[in-house]
């Protein structure tokens, strides 16, 4: 997934914002969007430290278990401290991470059962027909899904930024 993570975090946050109204919207937006991007922050380690030796989806930052554990910990935190905004933000951040892995799983390998089972899962595969490698993803139908997610987020953003005024009688 190339361009859909940020807009997917925006859509996730908008979808949940009314239920989480006790936390200011900018904080929610930051948590939801950062969570949706966060698993790919491991690219820094991939390029700068690991020298591309390991598929970055094999790092703990792309393990569903880590993100599910974060969400579970946030829910326990919320249970113990019902008015904690930090718990809400941590939960939304974790949810963004899970959404990231779900979207990655469309055409990218995700080790859903890591670290217990070393087996990647992807819903669809992208045939390696062109060079450079990323061109294969751009011309694959799954990129239309990414564009649709980005388009939906953009439309929603514009509608929320410029709400239409009620029609005047004069
Ligand atoms: Zn990713």
Describe the protein in words:
This is Metal-dependent hydrolase. Pfam families: YdjM (PF04307). Keywords: Hydrolase, Membrane, Transmembrane, Transmembrane helix. One of its GO terms (molecular function) is hydrolase activity. It comes from Pseudomonas zhanjiangensis. The chain has 170 residues and is mostly helical. It has one domain. The chain is 56% helix and 0% strand. It is built from seven helices and no strands. The protein is globular. The N and C termini lie far apart (49 Å). The mean pLDDT is 94. Zinc ion binds next to helix 5. The site of zinc ion has 5 residues, from helix 5.
**Strand-residue fraction?**
under 5%
Approximate shape = globular
Total count of domains? 1
Largest sheet: none
Arithmetic mean pLDDT:
94
Distance between the termini: 49 Å
Number of helices: 7
Number of strand segments: 0
Share of helix, binned: 55-70%
Rg for CA atoms: 18 Å
The ligands bound in this entry are: zinc ion
Low-confidence stretches: none
Structural class: mainly alpha
Secondary-structure element sequence? Answer: HHHHHHH
In short:
Helices cover 56% and strands 0% of the residues. Helix 1 crosses helix 5 (85-104), helix 2 (25-37) packs parallel to helix 5 (85-104) and helix 4 packs antiparallel against helix 5 (85-104).
């Amino acid at each position: 997934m190339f361009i859909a993570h940020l807009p997917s975090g925006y859509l996730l946050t908008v979808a949940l914002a009314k239920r989480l109204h006790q936390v200011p919207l900018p904080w929610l937006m930051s948590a939801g969007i950062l969570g949706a991007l966060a698993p790919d922050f491991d690219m820094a380690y991939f390029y700068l430290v690991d020298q591309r030796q390991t598929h970055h989806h094999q790092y703990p930052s792309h393990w569903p278990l880590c993100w599910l554990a974060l969400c579970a910990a946030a829910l326990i935190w919320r249970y113990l401290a019902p008015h904690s905004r930090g718990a809400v933000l941590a939960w939304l951040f974790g949810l963004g991470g899970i959404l990231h892995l779900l979207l990655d799983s469309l055409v990218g390998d995700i080790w859903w059962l890591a670290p217990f089972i070393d087996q990647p899962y992807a819903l669809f595969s992208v045939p390696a027909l062109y060079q450079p490698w990323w061109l294969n993803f751009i011309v694959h139908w799954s990129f239309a899904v990414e564009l649709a997610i980005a388009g939906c987020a953009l439309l929603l953003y514009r509608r929320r930024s410029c709400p239409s005024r009620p029609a005047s009688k004069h």
